[in-house]
Write a structure and sequence with these properties.
heterodimer; A: 285 residues; MetI-like fold; 13 helices; globular; B: mainly alpha
Chain lengths: 285, 295
């Protein structure tokens, strides 16, 4: 019964990953692809990647992007989950109904929508701020090298937040009411109840969100493609964008692309192991 | 559970309104952008609401460039990919539906064995799936591109379907396994005592009981596949086989395409999954939670 799964895992996941490792130590360009021979080059691709200043810029940007998105997601997700958990407040029920909407938006559309929001000349955000009288000069949100990286975190957080909110909300509903009632009798105020009961009970789910979102944010691609294409300059080059550009735009250095992707994969694999340890340690399901 | 004071309630209302506004803001942008002309967007760059509302952006996309409408009257250039909207929409539908069916079928078989049989190798299979979920698409793209290129299969829908199925199968298994674990095994044991094979017990007893699980997993698979960009982008360069996200990505960097047209095609691309999410919310919420935390 597991044959199809094993076949797919082998063909689409295991084999390509191993093959990527193989390519990363060979010289693979368009000329080599045409001839079908990849000369062995040892660690040369890795050397060239590691010597490339752009790669280090990409790694730095990826780390900043990941840190900002993951931390804000956890904080905002806990806040919004508490908010929509207020069943007695009717606006909370409306929020709860709408909360999943960003999950429905294709990432590439999300990127384009925000590139319209951010546009210097025609952008929706500037229009809103003009109408509200907040600004009198347009703001170049994503076109300014100092703010571009922060600007692209917002659409990513917007799109991926529902996932985190749903997990926290599900965990909230699993906390026994009696705990809160007992604490209230003991005279604990709302803040104390949150610190002493809610946060400890959310610890595991927060760990899960941290790990999953870190791994996925490391590989952010669509929003970068749609909003900044790595620019302005190298301000928003991230790791996945680096591998993509090195491989699929001239001079198509697939070997270097594979090497850089492999470095990214190793970083994510480390995170995956932590996840496996933390969540499925005793795998009884 | 606790009585809220009036100011507290007011604060919560305000917080909710802020959250709702932030959720709806990008959707307002796509909607308002898609019903204007380029001229109107140029004319007043400080105006939120459109000067005049027009459906021409949608008309030009839905008639594949045959009817240009007033706002494209003088346009000499339309991106070719926009003229293939139906083809792309159909491709996306075929890919997403096939990937959903295949991941459900294979995923259910594997998730069931993981939930029922407690051997060392099923444990290993589960762990392999968890690790696989973390493999970033960009790592697979380069070898997949080279392999599929050498097979001469670069431009086929089949290639995309196979690649996406393999890519999503681990996630499907992780979503389904906790559900199967929660189905009591007494029923199938009774059936097996009566001479039913494990296979038949699975298809006739377990699967019908697991309908909510299949719905939850299926809708998530459909959405993720509908959204997938990188796999079809790299495997399909020929317009006839592009999926909708690839067509939309091809507009990026096209100097002659303006926001009004982009927002219109984005709106058309996001509508199917928005409808799905609004209709099947309960299943998606359950499925997302099941796929991230052990049951």
């Amino acid at each position: 019964m597991n044959l199809p799964t094993l076949a797919f895992l082998a063909a689409i996941l295991a084999y390509p990953v191993i093959y990527a490792g193989y390519l990363s130590v060979h010289k693979v360009g368009l000329a080599q692809l045409r001839r079908g021979e990849f000369p062995f080059t040892g660690w040369e691709n890795y050397g060239r990647v590691l010597e490339d200043p752009l790669f280090w810029v990409a790694i730095k940007n990826t780390l900043i992007f990941t840190a900002i998105t993951v931390v804000s997601e956890v904080v905002i997700a806990v806040a919004i989950a508490l908010l929509i958990n207020q069943a007695g407040v009717w606006t909370s029920r409306v929020t709860r109904f709408l909360i999943l909407l960003p999950y429905a938006i294709p990432p590439i559309c999300n990127g384009l929508i925000w590139s319209f929001m951010y546009s210097f000349q025609f952008g929706f955000l500037n229009r809103l701020l003009f109408s509200a009288g907040v600004i009198d000069q347009p703001i170049n949100w994503a076109g300014n090298p100092d703010t571009a990286l922060y600007a692209v975190t917002v659409p990513y957080i917007w799109r991926t937040l529902p996932f985190a909110i749903i997990l926290v909300h599900a965990a909230l509903q699993g906390i026994p009411r009696e705990l809160y009632e007992q604490a209230a009798i003991d005279g604990a105020n709302a803040w104390h109840r949150f610190r002493q009961i809610t946060l400890p009970m959310l610890q595991q789910i927060i760990a899960i969100i941290l790990i999953l979102r870190t791994a996925f944010a490391f590989a952010v691609f669509e929003e970068i493609l749609a909003i900044t294409q790595g620019g302005p300059g190298d301000a928003t080059w991230v790791a996945a964008w680096y591998s993509y550009k090195i491989s699929f735009s001239p001079p198509n250095n697939f070997g270097m692309g594979a090497a850089s992707a492999f470095i990214l994969a190793l970083m994510i694999a480390a995170i995956a192991l932590v996840y496996l340890r933390a969540v499925y340690r005793r795998v009884t399901l | 559970m606790f009585k809220l004071s009036r100011p507290a309630k007011l604060a919560l209302h305000v917080a909710n309104l802020v959250v709702i506004a932030v959720i709806l803001l990008p959707l307002a942008a796509v909607l308002l952008g898609s019903v204007q002309s380029e001229k109107a967007l140029h004319a007043d760059t400080r105006r939120v609401l459109p000067l005049e509302v027009t459906a021409d952006n949608f008309v030009v996309i839905l008639t594949q460039g045959a009817q240009k409408g007033r706002i494209f009257d003088q346009a000499t250039y339309l991106p070719d990919n926009i003229k293939r909207f139906y083809r792309a929409f159909a491709n996306s539908l075929i890919v997403a539906a096939s990937v959903t069916a295949l991941t459900l079928l294979f995923g259910a078989l594997s998730a069931y064995t993981i939930a029922r049989l407690r051997y060392r190798w099923t444990l290993f299979l589960l762990q392999a799936n968890i690790v696989s979920r973390f493999v970033p698409a960009i790592v697979l793209m380069i070898p997949l591109y080279i392999v599929i290129r050498s097979l001469g299969q670069l431009n086929t829908l089949g290639g995309v379907i196979i690649a996406e199925t393999g890519f999503l199968l681990p996630y499907a298994i992780l979503i389904l396994a906790p559900y199967f674990d929660a189905i009591p095994s007494e029923l199938e044991e009774a059936a097996r005592i009566d001479g039913c094979t494990r296979f038949r017990a699975f298809f006739h007893i377990v699967l019908p009981l697991a309908t909510p699980a299949l719905a939850a997993c299926g809708v998530i698979m459909f959405i993720v596949s509908w959204h997938e960009l990188l796999i079809p982008l790299i495997l399909n360069a020929r317009p006839d086989f592009m999926t909708l996200p690839v067509v939309i990505a091809s507009l990026v960097g096209d100097l002659f395409v303006f926001f009004n047209l982009m927002m219109a095609i984005c709106l058309l691309a996001l509508l199917p999954t928005v409808v799905l999410v609004m209709l099947l919310q309960r299943y998606i919420v359950e499925g997302l939670a099941a796929g991230a935390v052990k049951g």
